[in-house]
Write a structure and sequence with these properties.
Two copies of one chain form a homodimer. The first copy, chain A, has nine helices and 13 strands. Chain A is of the alpha/beta class and 318 residues long. Chain A has two domains: 124 residues, ATPase, nucleotide binding domain (Nucleotidyltransferase, domain 5), CATH 3.30.420; 158 residues, Nucleotidyltransferase, domain 5. In chain A, strands 3-2-1-4-8 form a five-stranded mixed β-sheet. Chain A has a five-stranded mixed β-sheet with strand order 11-10-9-12-13, with helices on one face. Chain A has a three-stranded antiparallel β-sheet with strand order 5-6-7, with no helix packed on it. At the A-B interface, helix 7 of A face helix 7 of B.
Chain lengths: 318, 318
């Protein structure tokens, strides 16, 4: 069976997998992204070498890589990815040289959005928002994610929602990401004196009747509020059939979805909000999206199967 | 030569014309929109009857009508247009009955955006923002304006840019329209004690060294600031090749464009703003867009000619 080597390049970690045409990860490996552009590239090369070896009898037919930032998908160039320190990096040529395989480089959120689309029955018009170290979006219009004139569309995380608000690492003020990205939640919780080792720990303290943690509640309310404001704009502009949340922060589930739906509703006076749900691929959406890029690079249309909803019976999605 | 009857239905006035396939208005007539839905419909019917008579020897082949709000273009139904008091109005059927001609009903901004596109050389990706009684947008992606799952896309005027800001007539708070629509500028100027009979009078008092009018300056700065915040989001989400401003307020020209470009630039830390310009069709874009709908209804592709830029030599656009 043909497989591809797939890597979802995140701001914190590189998530790799050997993925088959059904979207199943036969093996998974992760590495930290590293703190500078050269280190991130070295780690990516090492991860791909490791995955190639682990593929064993399955001979990989291609490599698919999803990266954040501004990506020129036609040439496989990362034009600008601030979280990675990459600028005008001809990633596809570099990786083809190193692996000897055909390589596709695409935008992480757009690729993940398309994987979600394949898995959930190809909606014509929806918005996929992965919330992790960074926040972006695949804005699917008439079946295809908008890439924009320079490949820079979908930067939902850098829509300004509080004009004089929090400084964002990107240099702007009041971006959605400055409140709602995983790192922002943790940083803002600590700035209020809270102690936590991870964003998940903060989220676990939100909205409890007993053991109330006012700092966790306040920081989370700001995160949800910023997302709601950004999504109000997306709703007004694009009128999507649904909004799908992915990425690590979406694992919060109802703790995220319920207040977000309420906030979004309160910002809309004369139309109902689009339905809101978490991604069917869950935190694997990025990896599956990268795999999709790889398969398409060699003219293969994968037959992705709808993964099982967490908590239901049946084999996992690998 | 074949002509159509075209009407651009605005929140304040009905702008009608008999338009030929070159986009020239052979005759123009306007009527007020009226204060209620029934009155607006009666005025529209009367205006169409008047235009049909004025067409004289040119026999109209169709009627094209552009309306604001949520429009189902396939059925010619105005689902919801708050400025007009229309809800679930089967306008196409009504007008075909009354005129005996084939009728097309479309969204005003999307139709005007397409007319602009035809006139300025069909950009694949741009945003057209008519600023008048209301504010909306044609978001052109891959050559076609986004209509959304329910025909409600492009409501740029109701993107919330100041979460606890000015009440908007739509029932929300802090919408772009609550600061930057023609009526909002005039209302907010008067609320500060300024006296003016029209928005154009207020705009004429902006940014003068002598005769400085601090109220006009402040109100205009708020309008420009709200537009800039909304366009920051549009830029981040869609990465358009250019932003084109139309509608009555765009007649302000450099008084609008210069501070808007500066504000937009100051909200973008790591990318340049898309080029900003006023519409080539100017305030006629809505009428020409409605004419385009009419011609397309009967399978005719009009050969719109680029209108002459005001102030340059040559015949007007009629």
């Amino acid at each position: 069976m043909s497989v591809v080597l797939a890597v979802d390049v995140g701001g914190t970690g590189l998530k790799g997998a050997v993925v088959d045409v059904h979207g199943r990860a036969l093996v998974r490996r992760e590495r930290p992204t590293a703190l500078d552009g050269r280190g991130a590239l070295d780690n990516l090369l090492a991860l791909l070498a490791e995955l190639a070896e682990l593929a064993g009898p399955h001979r990989p037919v291609a490599v698919g890589v999803g990266t954040p930032g501004t990506v020129d998908e036609a040439s496989g160039t990362v034009v600008h990815a601030s979280n990675l320190g990459w600028r005008d990096l001809g990633l596809r040529a570099l990786l083809e040289e190193a692996t000897g395989l055909p390589v596709a480089v695409g935008h992480d959120a757009r690729a993940a959005g398309r994987a979600e689309q394949l898995a959930s029955g190809a909606r014509d018009s929806f918005v996929f928002v992965p919330i992790g170290t960074g926040i972006s979006a695949a804005l699917v219009v008439r079946g295809t994610a908008v890439s924009g004139v320079s490949g820079a569309a979908g930067e939902f995380g850098h829509v300004v929602v509080h004009p004089d608000g929090e400084p964002c690492p990107c240099g702007q003020r009041g971006c959605v990401e400055a409140y709602a990205a995983a790192g922002a939640v943790l940083r803002r919780y600590r700035a209020r004196g809270g102690r936590a080792g991870s964003t998940a720990e903060v989220v676990a303290r939100v909205g409890r009747d007993a053991d109330a943690d006012a700092d966790a509640d306040a920081v989370w309310a700001d995160a949800v509020g910023a997302l709601a404001l950004g999504l109000q704009g997306v709703t007004m502009l694009l009128d999507p059939a649904e909004i799908v949340l992915g990425g690590g922060v979406s694992r919060a589930g109802a703790v995220l979805l319920d207040p977000l739906a309420a906030d979004l509703r309160s910002l809309l006076a004369w139309r109902s909000p689009p339905p809101l749900r978490t991604a069917r691929w869950g935190a694997q959406a990025g990896r599956v999206g990268a795999a999709l890029l790889g398969f398409e690079r060699v003219g293969t249309t994968p037959r992705f199967e709808l993964p099982h909803v967490p908590g239901t019976a049946g084999a996992g999605t690998g």
